[in-house]
Amino acid sequence: MIPFADLALNIPETRKPRVVIIGGGFGGINLAKKLRGKNFQVVMFDKQNYHGFWPLLYQVATAGLEPDAIAEPLRKLFGSDNYEDFHFRLVKVKSVNPVTKIVHTLVGDLKYDYLVIATGTKTNYFGNDQIKKFSFPLKQIPDALNLRSQMLQCFEQASMTPDPETQQSLMNFVIVGGGPTGVELAGALAEMKRHVLPSDYPGVNINKMNIYLVEGMDRLLPPMSKESSEKTYKYLKHLGVNVTLNTLVESYDGEVAVLKNGDRIHTNTLIWAAGVAGALIDGLPPETVERGRILVNEYNQVLGYPEVFAIGDIALMKTDKWPKGHPGVAQPAIQQGQLLGKNLVRLQRNEPLQPFEYTDKGSLAIIGRNQAVADLPGNMHFGGFIAWAIWLFVHVMALVGFRNKLVVLSNWVYKFFTYENGTRLIIRPFVRKGDRAKQRFVDQYNTD
Hints:
The chain is an alpha/beta fold. The chain is 31% helix and 23% strand.
C-alpha cells in the first residue's frame, strides 16, 4: 500500500491498494465495475474520455448513427455518487516501469500496487507508409466522422463535376479487409446505394457507384465458419459488391489503388480494415511481447511481473484450445476484466487465483437488411433473417447505457420502415493533407 500522489495528476493519497487501469475499453470498464466497493483505489487512464462500442462504428461512418449513440462518457459510468475512490484522467500514458511500479504519463507519474494494461489494438498497416498516409482507417470515432465526411463530399463533388473520369473516381470505394468491419461496411454502403443516395443525388447516376471489397485470404470472414463465409459472399454479390479474394493491395497514392494481381482502381476513397496490432506501451521487456501482444499466464499476469496484468486484445494467453491466443473480439476482454476483478480481491485475501477459461458465445456479422450470419455454440450456423434478428438483439443489449440502447433501437426501427440514414451531415469537412482540389471544394462553401 502506497501513500503517494502526483500533484500534476491530482490523485489523492491512499492506504488502499491502488489499481491503475490503462484503457477504458471492454476489459477496462468491466474490471473497474468489479472493483466497485472492494476497498481499492482505482485510477483509469485513457486518451479519450468515453467508452465506445466499436462493433457499430461502421454505422457512424455510413450515416446510420451519430457518435454519441455508441459511446458513453467514462466519468458518467463511474461517477463519484456510486463509486467511491475512482479517478479518471484524460491523459496519454508514455511508458511503464514494472520494476519501480510507476506509470509515466504526459502529465505526471503515478505509483501503483497493481497495473492493468487494457489498451486494445491499433490499425496495422504492415509497414506500408503510403497506405497509412492516404487511406482511411476505422478504429475510433474521429476516423468514422472523417470517413462519413469524405464519402458525402465525394458525392457532392460528383454532382458538380462535368468530367466522367473524375466523377467515376469519386464514386469508387475500395474496402481492404474481408473481416467483420470490411464486410459490414461494404453491406452498409451497398444499401445506401440502393435506398438512400438515388433520392439525395438525383442528378448523379448512382448506378455508376462501385464498391470493391479486397481480401487477401481465400474467403471472407476468416475467423468464422466456412458456411458463414460462403453465405456472406453470396449476400454481398447480391447487393452488387465487387468481391476480390486471394489478393492484396500493393499501393495507394490517394488516387489509384494497385492490387497484387495487377488490377488498378481509380478511387478517392480507400478504407483500410485489413488488420490490427496491439497498442503496446513502452517499458515492458521485449521477452514479454510476442506478435505485437503481451504474453500473460492463465491469470492474465504478465510473464515475470505478478503485479502487472494485461487483458483483452492486447493480451496473448496461449492455451491448448487457443494456441494463438483468444480472438480479438469483445467477449474475451469482458470476461477477463470480470475475472481479474475477482482475482484482485483474492490476492488481497491471500486466496488462490482462479484461472481464466474463455466461454465462446459465438460470432456474428451483418451484411444488410435480413441478411446476416451467426456461428453459435454447439456448431450451429444461421443465416438470413434469424441471424439478422440475433445480431440486432445482441448488439442492442451490449451497448452501455439505457439511453444508447433506446437511441440505437429507435434508429434501426425507423430505418427498417423508411430505408433512411438520418445523419447525412458534413459537420466537419475532411481534407486530406495536400489535397488541393478537395481544399478548393471545401473552401467554396465554408464561411468565416
